[in-house]
Amino acid sequence: MIEAVPLDAPKDPQDRQTWWGVRFLKKLYVQVIVAVVIGSLLGHFEPQIAQQLKPLGDVFIRAIKLIVTPIIFLTIVVGIATMGDMRRIASVGLKALIYFEVASTIALIIGMIVGNVWPVGQGINADPATLDSAAVSGYVTSAKSMTLVEFLVNIIPTTFVEPFVKGEILPVLFVAVLFGLALCKFGDKVKPLIGILEQVSAGLFGMVGIIMRFAPIGAFGAMAFTIGKYGLGTLVNLGELVLAVYIVSILFVVIVLGGFLKIAGFSLWRVLSYFKDEILVVFAATSAETMIPRSIQKLERLGVKKDVVGLVMPTGFSFNMDGTAIYMTMATLFIAHATNIELSLGQQLTILFIMLFTSKGAAGVTGGGFIALAATIPTIGVLPVAGLTLLIGVDRFMAEIRAATNLTSNIIATLVVGRWVGAVDMERANDMLARGPEADAVAEREQAEERPARPVEPLRPVNVATA
Q1: Hey, what's the signal peptide range on this chain (predicted)?
Q2: pTM over 0.90
């Protein structure tokens, strides 16, 4: 077999090997893996130094979150405005919500079943009276405003800019949908405005590309801090729970989400390979929202229509947190087993129902999964709130798989819903997936070099009364 060698590759075999090595190290996912390994080693052997590196991870996450809400707003507004047809908007939105509820409910049920079959926590025999509930008082206080009524009320912000300042995804969705629907009423009259919004969005996506170059540094700092502060000893002590959450999350992605993809006509392994950069960065940074902008771009280049991506992907980060759902049910049963409290079938079904709502409040909040759990435990009225202290030491380790699963589930949700509504160019998608991330890198360069700037027409006054 003749090896295909790029024209710019060195002719000398030794130089060519070096050239391939340099090219391999330039891949983002390779850099992130190396950074995570080095950060873990530093955290283990030099914990004091490693803990001082926390700002590296924090700065990277802040830099990305700085532009997450504006990008979500612009993506949804442009998507709805260009979709135009109210019936199509309603159809896509309804089908997306149906998918979200089915997927997240399955995730909750699987976590509940595994928590019963694999009784992690039995034998700990923790006495709630001896646990320091003050250690979780801050989380419980944060969770008090996450009741169902407060959750629904807080969707509507008090001012237009409030959700952008606070970085709250669900209120941004509400404002964006309202604005997008309003623009639909004016039809062609607002095309110049849509053109301006698209150009602003392109500029923000350009910022994402610049920030992503520093992802390995952020991953290094975040992992070094995690291992340095909590230590591998903490992981060993409650390793069974961490292992269980990891195994269930991975199996959920492979079996359940992989099954959805198979029905939609996609290969799970190719999809995971295509998005491996984003998944690895999220795993290290423990924040799924940081990769929303980049995932939106890659889904569009993959062949999913922009309007569907703009409506489904951001919405999923409020209604489709599958990784968080798995964690919440398994952690709840862990507390029950550890404190020797027997939960009846009726009580477990009640927990399941409550979590259908409380899991939705985990989006865009640092430590959102733990806070959502803190909102659920007092509502149940059976488990001691102090039982949450058993999870504090290892929650950070489980936050990694939660974030990675949440991102993966919403990428897959966008592909499945897009296929459901006929908004995916399957020929292009399968070709891009078959060629892997390199195909996306080529498409990204071509998009940046060849796409002409959309001309902006002068804005014309719009008569609101007659629109």
Answers
A1: none
A2: no
Supply 261's token pair. 């993809």
| CA–CA gap between residue 122 and residue 125 (Å, rounded) | 7
Distance from C-alpha of 115 to C-alpha of 335, rounded to nearest angstrom: 11
By residue count, the chain amounts to 467
Residue closest to 405 by CA, chosen among 315, 306, 301, 291: 291
Query: What is d(CA 347, CA 342) in angstroms, rounded to the nearest whole number?
Result: 10
| Structure confidence by residue, pLDDT tens digits, 309-350 | 988 988 888 888 899 999 999 999 998 888 888 888 888 898
Cβ-based neighbours of 219, under 8 Å, separated by 6 or more: 32, 35, 36, 39, 57, 60, 280, 281, 284, 285
Specify the residue for token string 């699963």: 405
- pLDDT tens sequence across 139-162: 555 555 555 677 678 788 888 888
String of b and e for 227-246 (b: at least 16 CB within 10 Å)?
Answer: bbebeeebbeebeebbebbb
d(C-alpha 225, C-alpha 57), whole Å: 9
Q: Whole-angstrom Cα distance, residue 403 to residue 423? A: 27
Where do the domains of the chain lie, and which CATH numbers do they carry? 15-452 (1.10.3860.10)
Q: Can you tell me the distance from the alpha carbon of 226 to that of 44, in angstroms, rounded to the nearest whole number? A: 10
Residue 147 φ then ψ, to 5°: -65, 165
* Surface-to-core class of residue 160, CB atoms within 10 Å of its CB (0-12 exposed, 13-18 middle, 19+ buried): exposed
Q: How far is CA 280 from CA 69, 218, 252, in A?
A: 22, 12, 18
